[in-house]
Amino acid sequence: MIQFKNVSKTYNKTNQALININLEINKGDFIFLVGPSGAGKSTFIKLLLKEEEPTEGNIFVEHQDITKISRRKTPYLRRNISVVFQDFRLLPNKTVYENIAFAMEVIEASSREIRRQVPMVLGMVGLSDKAKQYPHELSGGERQRVSIARAIVNNPSILIADEPTGNLDPETAWEIMKVLKQINRRGTTVVMATHAKDIVDTMQQRVIALEKGRIVRDQHKGAYGYED
Ligand code: ADP
Ligand code: ADP
Predict the structure, then answer these.
(1) Cβ neighbours, 10 Å, residue 227
(2) pLDDT tens for each residue of 153-185
(3) What pTM did the predictor assign?
(4) Atom 24 (ligand 1): residue with closest C-alpha?
(5) ipTM of this complex > 0.95?
(6) Which atom of ligand 2 lies nearest, measured to the CA of 39?
(7) Backbone angles phi, psi at 227, to 5 degrees
(8) What is the CATH number of domain 2-219?
(9) For ligand 2, atom 11, which residue shows the shortest CA distance?
(10) Is the beta carbon of 12 within 6 A of some atom in ligand 2?
């Protein structure tokens, strides 16, 4: 589903953020991406989203080499790979419903599809009763659930979560993890970059650890492995 082949990324000719990464992620995997600050996690995610291009190597998503597709075609990639961020990134002037519908409008879904899909994903994240609220009227956990609903509304095969619990208290963080695990059970591959030791240690999923741009550990049912 995702393959990195001899991937390196060097910023400004000198700053080696990723060094010869080789990695396969299978359909349906749940992956924790861990490592100290500066290890290369954000760069890894940016390469997958085609926000940055590798200096060397190839990245395959569902057998398509994404380093070879033109910028113009990245919207198609975005249908397949979706992302949630630590800071939610919701549109403040749109309601919950409109925030999610907007993600469908940009890929030109029909209004019939939108009317079917938006209530469905709101139900999945447990926010059916918040459709008409604005982001500022919601708690942090609710905002993150909206951003997850928005991320899955176009049925991506891969969901990337960049520190999705970083702004949440531990109890709320666990609610978000339940939602992500439920999405994963339905078949979506989840790649989550995180510093949440408790969550990684408890969930017993595959753990990929980066340090100074290299994979130093790739562990089935792994642990966080750091003390921060
Ligand atoms: P984290 O992923 O740990 O939350 P960031 O990705 O924001 O943190 O930043 C990680 C490191 O990358 C930091 O040392 C930061 O200074 C550096 N960094 C991030 N973006 C840039 C940039 N545009 N130019 C230079 N350094 C950057
Ligand atoms: P992490 O997310 O694990 O904190 P990053 O991928 O943000 O790591 O950073 C990896 C390395 O690349 C760091 O040395 C960081 O300073 C550098 N870096 C990240 N983004 C940029 C950028 N846009 N320009 C220059 N250097 C960057």
Answers:
(1) 5
(2) 999 999 999 999 999 999 999 999 999 999 999
(3) 0.88
(4) 11
(5) no
(6) 3
(7) -100, 5
(8) 3.40.50.300
(9) 17
(10) yes
Is 126 within 8 Å of 145 (Cβ atoms)? yes
User: How do the domains of the chain map onto residue ranges?
Assistant: 2-219
Alpha carbon nearest to ligand 1 atom 8, residue: 37
Q: CA-CA distance, 49 to 131, in Å (whole number)?
A: 28
> How remote is the CA of residue 126 from the centroid of ligand 1, in Å?
34
Q: What share of the chain is helix, strand, coil (3-state, %, to 5)?
A: 40, 25, 35
| 84, 164 contact by CB (below 8 A) | yes
For ligand 1, say whether the CB of 37 is within 6 Å of any of its atoms.
yes
- CA-to-CA distance for 67 and 191, rounded, in angstroms? 19
Task: Kindly report, residue by residue over 201-228, the tens digit of the pLDDT.
Answer: 999 999 999 999 999 999 999 999 998 7
